[in-house]
Design brief:
Blueprint (H helix, E strand, L loop, with lengths): L1 E4 L10 E10 L5 E13 L5 E8 H7 L5 E11 L1 E7 L13 H14 L4 H17 L2 E7 L4 H14 L3 E4 L1 E2 L12 H15 L5 E7 L7 H13 L4 E6 L3 H10 L6 H7 L7 E5 L5 H10 L2 E4 L1 H7 L6 H7 L2 E4 L11 H14 L10 H7 L2 H6 L17 E4 L5 H8 L4 H11 L5 E7 L3
Helix pairs in contact: 3-4, 4-5, 5-6, 12-16, 15-16
Length: 441
């Protein structure tokens, strides 16, 4: 069964094909585009809808005679977007004004998050959050909850009902945090393990061990998190690092034995495959090599970094050293759920904020970093973020003529890069005509 959000509901018991233009990526992240494409989906052994075949209509249709076809002329089929770092409890504080990261946390974030001790509030916001993600074409996110187990429970329950592939975890913060969000060291680790056992790998759900950031956890809590990360190696680790210069200075004062802020996490066993750190702005090459050598990935959050004045992610440095990264909205420090806003902000950062100025990120690469590249950074390559055979069939139906200006601009595109850049610069949620989720029959 597939459920398509916005406008239609499709129920499929067997293979079905969709005809439209088709965007996907090869193993190197290069775009593959068929102006007249065909996407064939069907159930796997567990009944989950997966891509069975994809490519040019003339070739693919010949391999699947008799399969029913839904034709969407003038539309583009594309992989669902993957948001590598977002805070569902901060949905209501998007656009809250502040002088920078630390005042923003104190004045807006922590008061809002304290309300998530209430299960009813957590459940209400979770529904709004998922509606917004799907309306904007985001089908998977690596997500911060709060320090309250109730927030994690509400998130997973809502995601499970919708059969979404989602990842979250209880935030760990046992110091330097106000009443209402500060947890207790031993209980926080007990709660984390109980939530892992209850929810990790339940359907399409995954658990992330989630220290908020090193300054808000004691050595004992970080050590316990590292022990859990070793005990459950297929979980994720999710935190923040090197976002803001004041934060970096604070971390150095609290952990003087560490070579750098990033090295704090390495010392506690929190850098490995499926470890993801948001921001990673104030790095040197030793930090970048540590990311690469441990298989750790960065979640680049350009709208948040611009909004809070935190600095610029160094795309050139990341590519030169060769470590994994993908794009993220970082709502509510980020200013939009829209992947188009995130990709455009990443382009700005690439142009202005590099060690080597003037990096121009190709539109197809921006798109890759928010789909298949983000999936690879999460350790989910070949599972989500692409429309190649074997991938779960989360996909978007995009209308490149969703607004009058888009219709005019996309009609003038001479090649794929021009088309994708038009969508990035001028696009928003109106582009997403349907969000189709791979569900089990």
């Amino acid at each position: 069964m597939h459920i398509a959000y916005r406008r239609v509901c499709l129920t499929l018991a067997a293979m079905h094909a969709y005809r439209a233009s088709l965007l996907r990526f090869d193993a190197a992240g290069r775009p593959l585009f068929d102006t007249d494409g065909l996407l064939v989906v069907g159930p796997d052994a567990q009944g989950r809808q997966r891509v069975q075949d994809a490519g040019a209509h003339a070739e693919v249709a010949a391999r699947h005679p008799g399969v029913a076809v839904t034709h969407w002329p003038g539309r583009i089929l594309a992989p669902g977007f993957v948001d590598m770092h977002i805070h569902f409890p901060q949905t209501d504080i998007i656009g809250a004004p502040a002088d920078g990261l630390l005042p923003w946390l104190e004045n807006y974030t922590f008061p809002a998050e304290s309300r998530f001790a209430d299960p009813a509030h957590s459940a209400e916001v979770a529904e709004v959050f998922f509606d917004e993600l799907l309306r904007n074409g985001v089908t998977t996110s690596l997500t911060f909850a709060t320090s309250h187990p109730q927030s994690v429970q509400a998130f997973f329950e809502a995601a499970e009902r919708r059969q979404l592939r989602m990842i979250t975890g209880k935030v760990l913060q046992d110091r330097h945090s106000p009443d209402g969000v500060r947890d207790r060291t031993e209980q926080s680790l007990v709660d984390t393990e109980a939530l892992i056992r209850r929810w990790h790998n339940q359907g399409r759900l995954g658990y992330a061990i989630t220290p908020r950031f090193a300054p808000t956890s004691t050595d004992a809590q970080l050590r316990g998190a590292g022990e859990l990360a070793a005990k459950y190696p297929d979980t994720w680790v999710h935190s923040h690092v090197a976002e803001n210069k004041d934060e970096v200075k604070w971390a150095r004062e609290l952990f003087p034995q560490a070579r750098s802020y990033l090295d704090v996490y390495a010392g506690f066993g929190l850098m490995r495959e499926r470890a993801v750190y948001a921001h990673c702005i104030h790095f040197d090459d030793d930090d970048r090599r540590l990311m690469r050598d441990t298989g750790t990935a960065s979640a680049v959050s350009p709208t948040s970094n611009l909004f809070l004045g935190s600095g610029f992610f160094d795309f050139e440095g990341a590519d030169r050293i060769g470590y994994r990264y993908g794009l993220a909205s970082d709502v509510g420090g980020g200013t939009s759920f829209s992947p188009f806003a995130t990709m455009l902000a990443a382009y700005y950062v690439g142009r202005e904020g590099q060690t080597k100025p003037g990096v121009s990120i190709a539109p197809s690469q921006l798109w890759w970093r928010h789909t298949g590249g983000a999936a690879r950074a999460l350790g989910l390559d070949g599972v989500i973020g692409n429309l190649q055979p074997g991938c779960e069939a989360d996909f978007l139906v995009i209308d490149p003529k969703a607004t009058p200006l888009l219709a005019r601009k996309t009609a003038l595109a001479n090649n794929l890069e021009e088309l994708l850049f038009s969508l990035i610069v001028l696009g928003d949620d109106r582009l997403i005509e349907r969000t189709v989720i791979s569900q089990a029959g």
